[in-house]
Amino acid sequence: MAFLRRSPRTVAPVPTSSRRTANDLRVGETATVCCLKDPEMALKLLEMGCIPGTQVRLAGRAPLGDPLMLVLGDEEYTLSLRVSEATTIQLKA
Amino acid sequence: MQETPTAPRPTTLPPSNRPAADPHLPRLALIGNPNSGKTSLFNQLTGLNQKVGNFPGVTVDRKTGMAQLGGQRRAEIIDLPGTYSLYPKSLDEQVIADLLYNPDAADYPDFVVVTVDASNLRRSLLLFSQLADLGLPAILALNMTDLAAERGIQIDLPALERELGVPVVPMNARKGVGVAALRIVMAERLAAPPALRFWEPEGDLLPLVRQIRYYFNLHNDYLALHYAHQFRGLRFLSDDDRAYLLELTEKYKFDSTARQAEETIGRYARINELLLEVVTVTRTEQREPASNKIDKVLTHRVFGYLIFLGILFLLFQAIFAWAQYPMDLIDQGVANFNELLQNNFSGPLVRLLTEGVIAGLGGVLIFIPQIALLFAFLAVLEETGYMARVTFLMDKLMRPFGLSGKSVVPLISGLACAVPAIMGARTIESWKDRMLTIFVTPLMSCSARIPVYTVLVALVVPDESWLGIFNMRGLVLMGLYLLGLVSALVSAFALKKILKARERSYFIMEFPVYRWPRWKNVGLTIVEKVKAFIFQAGKVIVAISVLLWVLASYGPGNRQAQAEAQVQQQAAAQRWPAAETERQVASARLETSYAGTFGHVIEPVIRPLGFDWKVGIALLTSFAAREVFVGTMSTIYSVGQDADLGTVQQKLANEKDINGQPFFTPVRALSLLVFYVFAMQCMSTLAVTYRETKSWRWPLGQLVYMTGLAYAASLLVWQVWG
Ligand SMILES: Nc1nc2c(ncn2[C@@H]2O[C@H](COP(=O)(O)OP(=O)(O)O)[C@@H](O)[C@H]2O)c(=O)[nH]1
């Protein structure tokens, strides 16, 4: 969390543990990214366009529940990521 | 969007001011996000005129090509690995830093061509913005304009050009639209250092950055910042440089991860401002993209796996059945050529050429159909975007074994041949996953084991059915394949515990939308892989074959001559027909050759497995390549060279042990079979593992581990049941 505190754009107002994450989305549900929990994973996510403030939609899950497919933003491109990675994406309430 | 070449802007010199003949060929690097059309553009610009080498010190392929720019003008292009940013996340991406951060490097590019996906401009511009801030002269190849138009994205090209200060060339690399314009822009050398700064180190970063900048005499703050972030990975820095940077970053408490995140967010903010000015989106009616509909079927919990199985079946069909015709042709061709030589010339040199060099070469060439077919298949699956879905479907299943979804394709390809399969493991970004995959792939039963399996299984397993449906031989054969698969998974599991990952493993990737494959790209992939195989692995196979031939043809002292004389005497006394004499002579010579001697030497070692010195020779020669097993057995058991399998089998069946009982009992055959399931007996695989891992540790590890496993398994079989 260290880096998030430094940058005013991404300060998390609520204790992070209680937040919903991308893994909690129902299939087809859309939400807005609030912040990214794991600093290193955050770099990767940011570079791939998963920025705080973007919309994400859970497009589906693999038959065994993991990994999942997230559709990002209005540009409509799909990321595939593991549950462990998706849980680092926290959503706005 | 129009496809007209962009007019030269006042920021660049008009072409006439430049020297007409350049002292050196302009060199440019092609860089862009994965799936931004970089490969398509590279192929468009260079055609077949490409070379694949290695970046120094790493396994990453270094593709270079010559682009014809019209008239006499040409440019050398380096294709860099696809990446989302200049901060490397994988070893592949590291080569970008090595190339771009060292202006003194031999192949430092004069300018970069950045492929940018117009339908996903925000994210593509992130990489461009970093390159821009490094001050590299650039051309922006605005690709996928067709997709952008489809989605109602309009880009104000003049405004974008004005803002960025570099030439922007709209294109569709798939169809080749805009490539001519890009050639002109490249030929006129209009690439310009970008005018716009997206993000610059400031505030408390400046003291650190300035110090680095002056120490290394760099032209740019942002480049200096990258030294601070990446000095550990930069190959061109000396140890002293690194120590200096380490000291500095510690002194300033430089937190690389946090700074990168800050920078990336800052860049997106600037990019968003830019996009507000140059992009307008008129929403076309919101219909669900076709890709999503296809995904509903292809990743369905039932159909998804069924379709995958179907595709696998087709793949096997191709590799086992279809490849057989060209393989037979090659085999026949090499044999005919050899015969031609042998009939017209004689002498030890000719024998070395025919039995050593050409036979070895034949062993290389024969794999070409399978390799070509396998890679054609993989290329189509990759090009259409299906491969990403396979990864998605299989990831959870593979993870308990320390492998990832991305290991599935190499493992499956390993059933055909471990050589292309190991090359296919390149798509795995995580170092640990990739090494595990490479290490265990040869345990999958490859097609070279098929002749061994068929001969031995047919020898001891009756051709009967079990429960009236299953053919016994088929069942045993399947059991052998399963044994290979299980051992691969278990080995991966064990190795996972031992291996320390040097980098964090990510699974996250972008799902490409489904597309129709471009056949030209498929063709280029095939040519590239086949070439790599012939020149890299081929050298080793031929060398080993020659060595083996020498070992099997010559013996210590005059023992061979003595043995031959003895056989001749016997033949004269018993009036053998000439053909029989010839076979017996060959057999006697082999027994007294270096290889035969070696067979006798290792006999004590392999006797606990139930093998004798003859099998020992077959094992020894099999270490170059398993497919020589049948040939060696037929030579040793003095069957004529051109015997078909049936007669080898008869000879093996007729072989008696000292008590006059058949030598190949079911248990002995099983012991040998198990040995072949596990043992690492393929020079090509070792050579390619070395090439892919750039370290002898891995191929040696495979050799020792797999052969040890084979020995232990055979020992178990023979000691328990023999
Ligand atoms: N519609 C469209 N597809 C393209 C264009 N350029 C490339 N492609 C396709 O995009 C996919 C990825 O392209 P590729 O060149 O392999 O991208 P790379 O990963 O950056 O090397 C391929 O299926 C191409 O045929 C384009 O301008 N328009």
UniProtKB/TrEMBL annotation, chain A:
InterPro entries recorded: Fe-transptr_FeoA-like, FeoA, FeoA_core_dom, Transcriptional_repressor_C
GO molecular function: transition metal ion binding
Keywords linked to the UniProt accession: Iron
Stretch list, region Disordered: 1-23
Entry keyword rRNA-binding: no
Domain (Ferrous iron transporter FeoA-like): residue spans on this chain: 20-93
Repeat listed as a keyword: no
Protein name in UniProt: Ferrous iron transport protein A
Source organism of this protein record: Hymenobacter setariae
Lineage of the species this protein comes from: Bacteria, Pseudomonadati, Bacteroidota, Cytophagia, Cytophagales
From TrEMBL, chain B:
Transmembrane segments: 302-323, 357-381, 401-423, 435-462, 474-495, 533-552, 669-690, 702-721
UniProt superkingdom: Bacteria
GO molecular function, one term: GTP binding
Annotated stretches, region: Disordered: 1-33
Its job: Probable transporter of a GTP-driven Fe(2+) uptake system.
Main location as per UniProt: membrane
Chain residues that bind GTP: 32-39, 57-61, 79-82, 143-146
Residues where Mg(2+) binds: 43, 46-47
Membrane topology: Multi-pass membrane protein
GO-annotated cellular components: plasma membrane
Gene: feoB
Descriptive protein name: Ferrous iron transport protein B
Keywords, ordered alphabetically: Cell membrane, GTP-binding, Ion transport, Iron, Iron transport, Magnesium, Membrane, Metal-binding, Nucleotide-binding, Transmembrane, Transmembrane helix, Transport
Regions of compositional bias (Pro residues) in chain numbering: 7-17
